[in-house]
Amino acid sequence: MDHFIVSARKYRPEKFDSVVGQLSITSTLKNAIRNNHVGHAYLFCGPKGVGKTTCARIFAKTINCSDPVNETEPCNKCESCLSFNESRSYNIHELDAASNNSVEDIRLLTEKVRIPPQIGKYSVYIIDEVHMLSQSAFNAFLKTLEEPPSHAVFILATTEKQKIIPTILSRCQIFDFNRIKVDDAVKYLEHICREENIKYEIEALHMIALKSDGAMRDALSIFDQVVSFSGSEIKYQTVIDHLNILDFEYYFTVVGYLLDGDFSKCLLIFDEILHKGFDSHNFISGLASHLRDLLVSKDTETVSLLEVSGNLRSRYIDQSQKCPVEFLYSALEICNQADINYKTSRNQRLLVEISLMKMAGLTGLKKKDLKVSDEEFMTTEDLKTLPGQEEDTITHERIPSSETDDKIVKKESLSGKVKIEDQHTKKNVISQRHISIKDVMSGNLAAPAIQPEPDKQGEDNNYEDPEAVYENEFTQDELEIKWRAFADIIQNERPRIAVSLRSKYPRIGPDFCIELVLENDHLKEDFIHNVKTPLLTYLRRELLNNSINLKISVEENANNGKKMLYTPEEKYSYLVKKNPALEKFKQQFNLELE
C-alpha cells in the first residue's frame, strides 16, 4: 500500500510559474534573480496558506541553482536542487521562531551565519513565524540582519507583521501576500482533479474555495477531506452535506419571500433550516453575504466582485434586478445588527425571526391592503418627471396634462407614494400633509397652499392667486391645540424650546398677532433664530391664515426679582457672615478670589 501524501505537500509549487495568485511577487523575485539584485533580507507577510514559505523555498533554491531555467526557475537537476528536494541541503536552513525565540537561539544562528555555503553562492535562512521572537531576541538579531556576510540571505515569514519591531522592518524588503481569489483556487483544484482522475462539478469546487476563505492550503485540506468522503467524484450536494454548508437555494428563496413581504413563509423556512441542524448565526451571516452579492450584482462595474460560478452569477444578476437598492441597504443593516447582537441575546432564535420580519416589512404595505388600484399610485421619483412640478415641499400642485384635466397631487403617508385624485371630485382642497422634524427645523416648509373650490363647469383658470392672503378666524383653543402639536414635532431636535412652548401658551392679539412671553433673553434669541420661521409657517398652514405673526417678549421681574446667579464676591460675603473665621483664613494664607 502506497504511502498517502496530502495534496498540500504533493502539489506544492516547485517553480515560480506554478505559484497560485501571487503574480506580482513572483515577478519581482524573478527579476531580482535575473538582474542579480538579490538582497540580504526579505520579509514575506500575509494570511495563512497563501504561499509565503513556498515562495521562500523556490527563491532559495533558484539563487543557488547552478543552471537555472531562463535565469529565473530552478532546474531541479543540479546537486544543489536535488539536495534541497531530498531535504539534505546544508545551504538552505529552515527555522521555526515559535520554538527558537530566545536570545541564545539567535546567538547560535549568528554563529552559523559565518560558515560559507558548501555548494552554490548563498546560505539562505528561512525563519517562519518570526513575530514569535522575544523583544530581546529581536534586538540581538538586529546587527546580523543589517550587515550579514555576503553569502547570507535571510527570508522572514510572518502572518502578523504588526508585531515585528520597526527596526527589523526597516532592514528588510517587505512583500505583502494577498488572499487567494476564488477563481484562482478553483483553477488549481481543477488541475489537481485532472491529475488525480477525479470527476467534479464546478459548483462543488467553488464551494470548497469559498470555504477556504482565501487560503490555498485550507482549500487543499478540504479537498482531501471531501475526496475521502465521496471517492472519485465530487458533487455539489456531497460537498455541502459533508461540510455542513447551507445551500444557496435557501437564500434565493428567502429573499424572494422577503420581496413579497411574506414573513410567515420566511419563518417556516428558517424553522426548516434549524431542524436540519444548521446554526441560526450562520444563517443570518450567510443571508447578509447573499444580500451583499445581490447588491454588487446590480451594477455592471461591481459584478466582478461576485465570487461565484458562471451559472450562479446569472441567477444573482436576475434576482438583483428585482431588489430595490433601498431594500438591500436596509436589509443589510438589519442583518448586521442581528450579527452584532447575536451573542448577547438571550433568545437568539427570536432575534433572527424579528430580523426576518423587519426585512419582510421593508417592501411596505401590500397594494391589496391599500384598497386602491395600481393606476392611482406613482412614486415620488415619477413625480419629478411630471410637467409643472417645481417644489417638492408644496403638497398640492397643478399637473397639466394634454390628455386629461388638471389633477391635484395629494401626498399620502404610504411608504413614500402619492395618490392622484381628479380635481373635479374635490370640493375644498386643504393641505393636510404630515410635517417632518427635518422640514420644520430646516425651514423648508412651504407657504400654505389653500385652493378654492373649483367651479362645477370645470373651466380653466379656477385657481386663485397663490399670493392671496387668507384670514380664517380661529379660537384660542384651536391655537393651543396646534401649539402643542408643534411642540411635539420639535421635541427631539429642540427639547428645551419644546418644554417652554408647552408651559407658555400664547395669546391672540389684534390683527392675528400671537403674543408669546419667554423666560429669558437667551431663550428668546434661540427661539428667533431656530424656531420662529417654521412655527409661523406651521401655524399659518394649519390655521388657514396667512396674516398670523409672532410677538416675542421676555418676562419682567422673573423669579420675583431674585437673582439666580451670584458673583464670587457675593458668595464670599455670604459665607463670611456665616463664619467670620473665613476672613482670617483668607488673610493668613494670602488667598484671592477667582
Task: Provide a quick synopsis of the model.
With 594 residues, the chain is α/β, with parallel strands linked by helices.
Q: Given this structure, which CATH class of the largest domain is correct?
A: Alpha Beta
CATH level-4 homologous superfamily of the largest domain:
P-loop containing nucleotide triphosphate hydrolases
How many strands in all?
Answer: 14
- Which class of secondary structure composition applies to the elements? alpha/beta
- Indicate the proportion of strand residues: 5-15%
Tell me the overall shape.
flat
Question: Treating each run of at least 4 consecutive H or I residues as one helix, how many helices?
Answer: 26
Examine the secondary-structure arrangement and name the CATH architecture of the largest domain. 3-Layer(aba) Sandwich
Evaluate the radius of gyration: 39 Å
Q: State the assembly state of the protein chains.
A: single chain
Look at the structure and give the mean pLDDT.
Answer: 78
According to CATH, the fold-level topology of the largest domain is Rossmann fold
> What is the share of helical residues?
40-55%
Walk across the major sheet and give the strand order: 2-3-4-1-5
Largest sheet: 5 strands, parallel
Intertermini distance: 94 Å
How many domains, in number, for the residues?
6
Give unreliable regions as ranges. Answer: 365-438, 445-467, 558-563
